[in-house]
Amino acid sequence: MSDLHKFPVIPVIVLDDANDAEPLAEALLAGGLNIIEVTFRTAAAAESIERIAKAFPEMQVGAGTVVTPEQAKRAIDAGSKFGLAPGTDPETIAYFKQQGVPFIPGIMTPSDIQAAVKAGCTSLKFFPAGAAGGPKLLKAMAAPYANLGIKFCPTGGVTLDNMNDYLSLPEVFAIGGTWLATKAQIQAKEWGTITQQVKDALAKASA
Ligand SMILES: O=C(O)C(=O)C[C@H](O)[C@H](O)COP(=O)(O)O
Q1: For the segment 40-96, what is each residue's pLDDT rounded down to a tens digit?
Q2: Closest ligand 1 atom to the C-alpha of 127?
Q3: pTM above 0.80, yes or no
């Protein structure tokens, strides 16, 4: 897991066409980002992960929206080096653990946090961060668990404008979002725009 904590920004990607996988990964790498979360929301996800893992071994490619053990298997078989989900499912967590692949389940309440910790996870996604109450909610909710060493990755409504409100919290190891490479930009093959968005986000994260 510590590897994942090296990246302050995680692009959450929805790919409809696996042919876009390599140029997209190239655009992210050109912006300085070696990490990508390809969500299991489309039929192209597994093939996209496989293609990125093969073409760019320097890229930490992971699977997002992994909500069942069956999807977890497909994600790992395709070459995912980590997995994430919007929620906490004990069986999916168990599958990742069994395979020795880091997994970051999603939480939105103290009960979710406790369920994830009980299942052995201490790196958690806070989703949907903005709609749930933003940095203020996360700070208040994380306080009682400070002794457990839990770290969070807020996603959902995170943008260039508010990302540092989250990153400035000591319990936040990264933020994620679709704004770094939107579905529309990928469909329109706006690779230069995506590279620039990544550069802007990384510059802001280190500011
Ligand atoms: O699919 C997952 O694994 C998730 O946890 C959800 C995503 O992180 C959010 O859908 C990103 O939300 P936006 O950046 O506001 O579009």
Answers
A1: 999 999 999 999 999 999 999 999 999 999 999 999 999 999 999 999 999 999 999
A2: 5
A3: yes
Q: Whose CA is nearest to atom 10 of ligand 1?
A: 156
d(CA 124, CA 122): 6
CB 105 less than 6 A from any atom of ligand 1: no
Question: Selecting from 3.40.50.12160, 3.30.70.20, 3.20.20.70, 3.40.50.720, what CATH number does the domain 2-206 have?
Answer: 3.20.20.70
Q: Please indicate whether residue 71, judged by its CB atom, sits closer than 6 Å to ligand 1.
A: no
Instruction: Pick the residue whose CA is nearest to atom 12 on ligand 1.
Output: 156
